[in-house]
Every structure is written in C-alpha cells, then in structure tokens.
Amino acid sequence: MFRLSCWLLVRIELLALTFVSCLPGNNTTPTPCPAGTANSITGQTSLSSCVACTSGYYATSAASVTCTMCPKGYTCASATSSPTICPTGTYSTNSSISCSSCPAGFYCPQPYNDPIVCPMGTISAGGSITSCSNCGSGTYTPSTGATSCTSCPAGSKCPSASSLPVACTSGTYSLAGQSTCLVCPAGYSCMDPTVSPVQCLKGYASAGGVVTSCTACGSGYYSLTNGSSSCTACPSGYAW
C-alpha cells in the first residue's frame, strides 16, 4: 500500500512538470512600429523601442527597419510622408525639411544640384532663378556671382559685359554707360576723354581725331565761327 501511494505521488508530480513545461509562450502577432518611426533591433518588447525619424528623414510605412534620408532636391517636412520635390528655381541638400531659394549671384537650374555661380557678364537677384540674366550694352560685371550690372565708366569702353573696361585712347572719348569710345569730331577739343567734346571758339580750329585740342589760327589765317575744323587763309587783297 505504501509503495502504491509513492508511485501515484511521483506520477502526479511528473504530470505536473510536463504541464508546466508545455505552457504556451507569447502567441500574439508582433505590433509594427508606426510610420515615421523605425526599429533595427530584434527581440524588442515595447513600442517604445520604435525610434522616431530625425529631422530630414522619413519612414512612410509601418514596420520600418530604418528611416530614409530625404534626398537632394526634395523636402521632407513630415517623417510619415514621401519626399516632395522642390519647386523650379529652388534647391535643397540632403536631409532637408524645406527648400531654399536660390541665393543672389547664383542660378538653380535643377533642385537637386547645388546653386551655380553666375559667370561674368550676367547677374542674378536670387529667388526662384533658373538662369542668370545678361548685362546690357554699356554695362559689365567686375567678377562672377554679380547681383547687378555696373555701368561702363566715362573715358572707357566696354565691348563685352564679361570683360573689364578698357580706357579710351588719345583723341577719343566716352560718357558713362557707353560700350565704345567715339572719335573726337572735327571742330572740337577732347582733352578729357571722360566728358563730351568741347567746341573750338572763333579763331581756333581742330581737325578732330587724334588732335585732342583746338589750335589757334596762325598769322594770315582766321576762323569766324565756333567749331571750325580748319583755319582759312586770308585772301589776296585782304589783311588780317
């Protein structure tokens, strides 16, 4: 009788141990990390393990392992939305949350490219700029990345907006904003190449061109009008 009781007791204990070892574990479906978060580590037990995407990164779907960097040319204002391409004339760098206006002196033909400096002879005021504007006749830019065209200075010529002014040669002149130097006209003096020609007075004359000053008429010659190009010889039968 004692042996039988012991056998039953042992049998009951073995059955109990077997029941405990077969208890089910976690039998629920894993909860995915929500959009805008990610988790790259296995075996996590709480949604607190889902890490929110940092600024400029996104995860549009649930159960993301990693957040994706916002690419150049796009903006990612929301971590749960797909990137939005930047408008024409703007740009963005990697991991941007907003698009940037093209800076002054640059142009932005593609939103995924860095701004490109305007070459000499062109300008940009910035903003939504896809190309630089050419400077007009009689203007130039002294360097690349200009925001405004510079008027060609008086006494110089600016044949090209992309090159520096060239001083007028003797006998020529130019006023501010002119692209070429003009030849000093006959009957005028061009001592100063930065101002308009000065008309010769009576008794003086100038052939113009390389002759920069009015010359007094010599003995036996005369000029009766202002702006004479030459002096006239005193005719026979007359004396001066």
Description of the molecule:
This protein is mainly beta and 240 residues long. Among the domains are: 50-100, no CATH class; 102-167, Tumor Necrosis Factor Receptor, subunit A, domain 2 (Ribbon), CATH 2.10.50; 184-233, Tumor Necrosis Factor Receptor, subunit A, domain 2, CATH 2.10.50. The protein contains one helix and 24 strands. It has one helix at 2-21, and strands at residues 37-38, 51-52, 57-58, 68-69, 74-75, 84-85, 90-91, 100-101, 106-107, 116-117, 122-123, 133-134, 139-140, 150-151, 156-157, 166-167, 172-173, 182-183, 188-189, 198-199, 204-205, 215-216, 221-222, 232-233. It has a two-stranded antiparallel sheet. A hairpin with an 8-residue loop joins strand 15 (156-157) and strand 16. The protein is rod-shaped and about 135 Å long.
Mind sketching the topology for me?
Layout: H1 2-21, E1 37-38, E2 51-52, E3 57-58, E4 68-69, E5 74-75, E6 84-85, E7 90-91, E8 100-101, E9 106-107, E10 116-117, E11 122-123, E12 133-134, E13 139-140, E14 150-151, E15 156-157, E16 166-167, E17 172-173, E18 182-183, E19 188-189, E20 198-199, E21 204-205, E22 215-216, E23 221-222, E24 232-233
Antiparallel strand pairs: 1-2, 3-4, 5-6, 7-8, 9-10, 11-12, 13-14, 15-16, 17-18, 19-20, 21-22, 23-24
